[in-house]
Design goal:
Blueprint (H helix, E strand, L loop, with lengths): L1 H20 L17 H5 L10 H5 L3 E4 L2 E4 L4 H8 L4 E6 L4 E8 L3 E8 L2 E9 L16 H8 L4 E3 L2 E6 L2 E8 L2 E9 L3
Antiparallel strand pairs: 1-2, 3-4, 4-5, 5-6, 6-10, 7-8, 8-9, 9-10
């Protein structure tokens, strides 16, 4: 009986993964992923090495957690090792890249990585609570006015929030009732 239940669960899981990764109807609106990137833009990512240009890497948003710099599109292995072993881990076959998308959930942040050419790179960092801040001092609970004062008025309006792009990354802020409810750093992968 347990083998039958396990088989059903595995088949349902595979069906869910296949449905999630299918291209679907081309006439539908793009699905927005965490941080505002669309599934279409993620699937159309090119084969250029994300760490190829030091100039591009020098200009990007960087989040610092417990003294560890987390730069978008940076090789993930050393960063994850430096952050320590106190995390929950999840992985799934990637719909946009080769290999696996990996998710590391720490106390106050979630770090996501993608695989390219056999190596893992930082895809996104999501702030989970108000105990962590951006380098500019913005946290969950900050006001929209504080975000604009720290990052400028020129941000791009996004779904329920605003985004700021710097080099090969962007940071997005989601607002509810004039307060930040979500902050996500996201790699721009071309």
């Amino acid at each position: 009986m347990n083998k039958k239940i396990l088989s059903v669960v595995l088949m349902a899981s595979m069906a869910f993964t296949a449905a999630a990764c299918s291209s679907g109807d081309e006439d539908t609106a793009p699905v927005v992923l965490s941080g505002g990137q669309t599934a279409e833009s993620a699937q159309n990512a090119g084969d250029e090495d994300p760490a190829a240009s030091e100039d591009a890497a020098a200009e990007a948003y960087v989040f610092t957690y417990n003294g560890i710099e987390i730069r978008m599109n940076a090789p993930a292995d050393d960063i994850i090792a430096a952050l320590g072993d106190d995390y929950d881990y999840f992985e799934a076959p990637s719909c946009a890249f080769e290999g696996l998308d990996k998710v590391y959930t720490y106390n106050s942040i979630v770090v996501r990585s993608y695989t390219r050419d056999g190596a893992d790179y930082i895809a996104a960092v999501e702030l989970k609570d108000d105990t962590v801040t951006t380098a500019e001092g913005i946290r969950i609970g900050s006001t929209e006015d504080e975000v604009r004062a720290a990052y400028g008025e020129e941000g791009t309006p996004g779904t329920a929030g605003i985004e700021y792009t710097l080099g090969d990354s962007f940071i997005s802020f989601i607002f509810e009732n004039g307060k930040v409810t979500a902050i996500t750093y996201t790699a721009i992968v071309e």
